[in-house]
Design goal:
Blueprint: H1 2-30, H2 33-54, H3 61-79, H4 84-101, H5 105-111, H6 116-134, H7 138-165, H8 170-187, E1 213-214, E2 217-218, H9 221-236, H10 243-260, H11 263-282, H12 294-312, H13 314-318, H14 341-354, H15 357-362, H16 393-421, H17 432-441, H18 458-471, H19 481-501
Antiparallel strand pairs: 1-2
Helix pairs in contact: 1-2, 2-8, 3-4, 3-8, 4-7, 5-7, 6-7, 6-16, 6-18, 7-18, 8-9, 8-18, 9-10, 9-11, 9-17, 10-12, 11-12, 11-17, 16-17
């Protein structure tokens, strides 16, 4: 108890220093006591989120490190857009760690085709490599090989951890997600409560009413909202966590939905709330919290969602032009309701129709991430074209992996859903949080690339961790084929010797 009290004291002291530092920094920047006070409140919230993360029972250092690598990569994608060497450096370090943790590789590779998340997050990279080589784009092929290597090694590290320990790495991943959220809240503490906030250069400057972070530490608001919702699903639907932890992470998700003003996040959260209510009514999942007041438990997520809609402007806000292109001089007009998504999807189809057979089958090979460029992207007409994501997982798989990529994506989604709803052969039901996460994320396929992984793959790696724990747990582990064969020969020789002796 003395050691625990000492650790709490040290943690409280560090937290107090962080809060004070945030207030001082904001006061120096603005010379305004009110702004400094707001920054201290936001910093206190960030410290509380870190405390929530480190107190989660069942969290493991390796799970947290794997999840943290993806959270960091996602943040760097927006923070270091013009410095790709930083992103590649972080991925290289993560890849080395994954390579060490992912052994035995051959045995792990055999398990990956049985995981739906592996199909959705890895297959298009492999297909894209083939497509790039077929059209002679060697540089793109090499870059895709590097991406595929890092993310495949991450999947192998998850599988190896589950097999070797029998523990669930998703708790550690969720803890890393919370720490990443806390870092963004702390970095953006000076503008959390402002109506005009810091944002990265480019299209982010058109959405400064949404929370991105601050002090050159940014993350897309939609992705931030997704992290909050998936953390709430992982922690809020598991009785292994204390009531205060489940309530705290649910409230945090509501706050992030408000700050990010994310329509996709609201759809994700609403689907999760509805599915949670269904499971509570059915009472067939022993891992769900033992709610004393079931109706209150079912209503809580909906109440939070209602508050989010009130604070973000309700239905009118859900359909407004997020990029505000009408007010941007000399800009091209885009579809306002979808923030240009439908325009991007049409461009993907146009590019596919104009492509050769190899790219039709294996995906666009123009760039390593198969980004989309349009002449009507909402940017100033005389400015450079933006590199756009597809913001649709199905279209993204089609863009990156062609027709074969789209088929592989459908296979992956089918496997994910099957694992989320079916019982195992031993009668074990999938975890309630995993069922809800997979089912709730299906509607967001239409507007986000979350299940495709990549550098913004924190949600993907959490789903993969949950699926691996469900499917790969208890499977035998072998080092490599040569070791397997030699073991078989030794066993056979021992059996023959024993028979001769008898």
């Amino acid at each position: 108890m003395t050691g625990l009290a000492s650790a709490r004291g040290v943690g409280a002291s560090i937290g107090a220093v962080v809060v004070a530092a945030a207030a001082v920094v904001e006061y120096v920047r603005t010379d305004h006591l009110g702004e400094a006070a707001e920054a201290s409140v936001a910093a206190l919230l960030a410290v509380a989120v870190v405390w929530l993360a480190v107190t989660l029972p069942g969290s493991t250092p390796r799970g947290a490190a794997i999840g943290g690598a993806f959270v960091l990569a996602g943040i760097l994608t927006w923070t270091s857009t013009d410095r790709p060497i930083v992103i590649w450096g972080a991925l290289a370090i993560a890849g080395l760690a994954f390579a060490v943790w992912g052994r035995p590789w051959i045995s792990g590779l055999r398990s990956l085709p049985g995981l739906g998340a592996a199909w959705t997050g890895l297959s298009y990279w492999l297909l894209g490599i083939v497509g790039a080589l077929l059209v002679g784009h060697l540089t793109v092929g090499v870059q895709r090989l590097a991406y595929a290597g890092v993310f495949t090694l991450a999947a192998l590290a998850v599988v190896a951890f589950v097999r070797s320990t029998g523990r669930d790495p998703s708790v550690g991943v969720a803890a890393a997600v919370l720490v990443g959220i806390a870092a963004l809240l702390l970095a953006g503490s000076g503008s959390v409560f402002d109506t005009v906030r810091e944002a990265p250069a480019g299209s982010g400057q058109l959405m400064r009413d949404r929370f991105w972070g601050g002090l050159d530490l940014f993350y897309h608001p939609n992705s931030l909202a997704g992290l909050g919702v998936v953390a709430a699903i992982r922690i809020g639907l598991d009785r292994a966590f204390a009531t205060w932890q489940r309530l705290a992470v649910t409230g945090l998700a509501g706050l992030l939905l408000t700050l990010s003003d994310s329509r996709t996040g609201i759809v994700f959260a609403a689907a999760a709330a509805l599915l949670h209510a269904v499971l509570v009514l059915r009472r067939r999942r022993p891992d769900l919290p033992d709610y004393r007041r079931r109706w209150a438990a079912m209503a809580t997520p909906f109440v939070i969602l209602a508050l989010v809609l009130v604070f973000t402007g309700g239905y009118v806000n859900l359909t407004r032009d997020r990029l505000n292109t009408a007010a941007t001089p000399n800009s091209t007009r885009i579809d306002a309701a979808t923030s240009g998504r439908t325009d991007t999807w049409r461009q993907v189809l146009t590019d596919w129709q104009d492509a050769g057979v190899a790219e039709k089958l294996f995906g666009d090979a123009t760039t390593s991430r198969a980004v989309v460029t349009r002449t009507d992207d909402g940017a100033p007409v005389d400015g450079p074209r933006r590199q756009l994501n597809t913001d649709n997982a199905a279209v993204g798989a089609f863009r990156r992996g062609g027709v074969l990529g789209a088929v592989a994506f459908l296979v992956g989604v089918g496997l994910l859903v099957a694992h989320a709803v079916r019982r195992r052969r031993d009668g074990t039901a999938p975890a309630a949080w995993f069922t809800v996460a997979v089912a709730a994320i299906l509607p967001t396929i239409a507007t986000e690339d979350w299940v495709l992984g990549g550098t913004n793959g924190a949600i993907w790696i959490l789903l993969l961790a949950g699926e691996a724990f469900l499917v790969a747990r208890g499977q035998p582990t072998t080092r490599w084929r040569g070791w397997e064969r030699s073991t078989t020969r030794r066993s056979s020789a021992a059996a023959v010797a024993s028979s001769a002796g008898s």
